[in-house]
Structure to design on (350 residues):
């Protein structure tokens, strides 16, 4: 019996990225072309156009049915989210956005109002975060697809890598976690408990109008005592694993220290779910996950007062990542790690 050819699903997203990294390494010039961070570094030595600042570039692809559903998002909300996802990657490098390009594929039957709404959302986000559209491309396709590339400039110490975590550093996360995961289930009509309108609106707002931590990322990027940093896009479980793998370290995380939003705690209590586990697995939060030897109290003095920053664990020697609660080890469900190409498709992201 003939053996079935291997598929990209057999390899998984991490395996595919490893193959891409190996291919790209053959043509690498210094740090230019290095793959593995939230954005690529274009000019780490001389800066962009003689500015003395490193330039970073991030690209993201959004496909209808995989990353969004029209019943969840109006076109303008989709446009906002599409740009914010890339802006968050720029923020995670300690950079400020400078420009973006748009690639848009759609069928001829796509409603014109949808296109206009999408452009309105993109324009609104571009205005708020001072990131102008400078070009792009339009093509015909059977499925609406959005491709955005954002460029940014670093200040201070330069781009912040995922590979800079060191044993002994504290692990921090900004803002709060959990609302993005609950929002999807609520919008899908899969949430088992009825929620008061205010709590429902607070949770869903995280999905339809997320805010990238651009100002905070730029401030953190200027600190001498910063280690590694990335944004929480695939969930804390998955993203912390990426930092540890690239830095060659392990971690200990206190589940009880996770900054779970009060609305998530209330909603999970009604549904009989553990809000901490929801927060640990929740993707597309667009908060910043970073490591530093600096004390939490000092970080609070340099970051905006309206932004929460919470110490959630420690970087450790070795490669093991251990989650614990009140001193006891907690085994997290491996399904909490999102993989675009896993056979099960990973947790839904729309």
């Amino acid at each position: 019996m003939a053996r079935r050819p291997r598929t990209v699903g057999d390899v998984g997203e991490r395996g595919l990225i490893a193959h891409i990294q190996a291919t790209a390494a053959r043509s690498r010039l210094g740090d230019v072309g290095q793959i593995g961070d939230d954005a690529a570094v274009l000019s780490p030595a001389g800066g962009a156009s003689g500015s003395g600042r490193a330039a970073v570039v991030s690209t993201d692809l959004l496909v209808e049915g995989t990353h969004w559903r029209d019943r969840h998002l109006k076109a303008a909300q989709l446009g906002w989210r599409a740009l914010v996802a890339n802006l968050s990657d720029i923020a995670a490098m300690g950079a400020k956005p400078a420009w973006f390009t748009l690639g848009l594929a759609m069928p001829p039957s796509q409603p014109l109002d949808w296109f206009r709404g999408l452009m309105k959302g993109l324009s609104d986000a571009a205005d708020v975060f001072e990131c102008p559209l400078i070009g792009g491309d339009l093509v015909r396709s059977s499925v609406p697809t959005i491709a955005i590339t954002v460029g940014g400039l670093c200040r201070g110490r330069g781009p912040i890598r995922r590979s800079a975590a060191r044993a002994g550093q504290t692990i921090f996360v900004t803002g709060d976690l959990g609302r993005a995961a609950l929002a999807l289930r609520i919008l899908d009509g899969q949430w088992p408990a009825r929620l008061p309108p205010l709590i429902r609106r607070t949770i869903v707002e995280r999905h339809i109008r997320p805010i990238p931590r651009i100002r905070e990322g730029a401030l953190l990027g200027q600190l001498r005592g910063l280690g590694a940093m990335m944004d929480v896009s695939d969930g804390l479980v998955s993203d912390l694993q990426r930092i540890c793998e690239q830095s060659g370290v392990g971690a200990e995380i206190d589940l009880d220290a996770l900054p779970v939003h009060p609305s998530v705690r209330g909603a999970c209590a009604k549904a009989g779910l553990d809000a901490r586990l929801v927060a640990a697995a929740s993707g597309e939060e667009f908060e910043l996950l970073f490591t530093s030897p600096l004390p939490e109290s000092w970080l609070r003095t340099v970051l905006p007062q309206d932004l929460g920053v919470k110490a959630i664990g420690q970087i450790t020697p070795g490669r093991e990542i251990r989650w614990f609660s009140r001193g006891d080890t907690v085994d997290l469900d491996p399904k909490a790690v999102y993989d675009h190409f896993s056979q099960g498709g990973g947790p839904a992201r729309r």
Observations:
- The first helix runs from residue 8 to 25.
- The longest strand covers residues 95-106.
- The two ends are 39 Å apart (CA to CA).
